[in-house]
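Good morning C.,

I know you're traveling, so I'll keep this short. The sequence:
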Amino acid sequence: MNQPGQPWQQPMHPPAGDPFQQWAAQRSWRMARDVPGDVLDQLPGPPFHDYEHKGIPLLLAGLHQGMPALVMQIASSYKYTATTGSYYSTTSDRQMTTSKSGTATSVTSVAVLELPSPVPELLVSRRREKSGGLRGLLGFGRSKGSSEGSSVATVQIGDPSRSTNAFTYDISGASPEYAHAVVTPERLHWLYQSFSNFAGLKVPSTPLFRLSGRKVMFWTSRQLFRPDTVDELLGWAHHVTSWIPPAAFQDPAAAAADRQHVPLTQLRLPFG
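The tokens, ready to paste straight into the viewer:
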């Protein structure tokens, strides 16, 4: 395991046959597989603690565009109950539903970049509750709050009356002025449409991100099944940094947001 403050070193003998290890060796990155979920205790807030019973099938660390970076896949288990059908009960004289319960696993792929200077907190998440009508279809809508913090705006993606893939982006944790400077409706619509071709698969997937101190976190529910998808995810995280207005680096809230984090090079990570 690397010690806090030590630079990440290139593995001396990358095992043959693992394309991610070969990708890492070519870029002087480190890689580990099947990492215990308690490593995430060093990374506060979303997306690292969305579920319990976590593991990390893939962990990569190195430099991207001169910035310390992490890429990981987080496998999380959760319990669910799904409706399977319905029938009419003559005993109770009413319609009844049938359901099944079980445990499923979700995968979240995350890229983390570390900026030279901190910026205030800002979270762009997917709203959990169903969107009401067509609110925000053409721009920002006001929100009554969310589990991630104080919501300052929403952006509707798609028409819920026409598409089952329609959803609402929730922007929280920031002042309204900062939020509107970073995430305009046009940018979020462009991000969603452009990201739909991630890894060459035209399958709907919601890209989410968070700014917090020096950390830029970008994540999706898609699996990193090829090494080039790591480059792609890092590229999206880096693109988000271009949306940060210069005034954000002078905001007193930036230092406050950064105090909750450990520098990436000081994380205790299970590299040999």
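Safe travels,
E.
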